């Protein structure tokens, strides 16, 4: 199964870094789904769950807040505000 790199950071620490199969989260304009080979994207995030599936198939759900998402070259970076 194809995957992409995901990094989730807040100002204090790295929350997650690894390979995932999918990512779903809330932006200011609605729900966003990211899969491998997604087109480049920059978005402002809204509070809500961040859901991602690891390469192993395990599904993870964490609570997200305001922040930013950047997707480029099979890498997604989420920067959460304090």
TrEMBL record:
GO-annotated molecular function: proton-transporting ATP synthase activity, rotational mechanism
Compartments where found: Endomembrane system
Annotated keywords: ATP synthesis, CF(1), Ion transport, Membrane, Transport
Membrane topology: Peripheral membrane protein
InterPro entries: ATP_synth_F1_dsu/esu, ATP_synth_F1_dsu/esu_N, ATPsynth_dsu/esu_N
Gene Ontology CC terms, in alphabetical order: endomembrane system; proton-transporting ATP synthase complex
Signal peptide interval: none
Pfam families membership: ATP-synt_DE_N (PF02823)
Phosphoprotein as UniProt keyword: no
Domain of life according to the entry: Bacteria
Principal subcellular localization: membrane
Transmembrane segments: none
Record domain ATP synthase F1 complex delta/epsilon subunit N-terminal: where: 4-79
Similarity section: Belongs to the ATPase epsilon chain family.
Protein name according to UniProt: ATP synthase F1 complex delta/epsilon subunit N-terminal domain-containing protein
């Amino acid at each position: 199964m194809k995957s992409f790199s995901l990094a989730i950071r807040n100002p204090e620490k790295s929350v997650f870094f690894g390979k995932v199969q999918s990512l779903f989260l809330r932006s200011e304009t609605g729900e966003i789904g990211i899969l491998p080979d997604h087109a480049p994207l920059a978005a402002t995030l809204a509070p809500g769950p961040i859901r991602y599936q690891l390469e192993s198939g395990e599904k993870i759900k964490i609570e997200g807040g305001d922040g930013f998402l950047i997707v480029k070259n099979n890498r997604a970076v989420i920067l959460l505000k304090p």
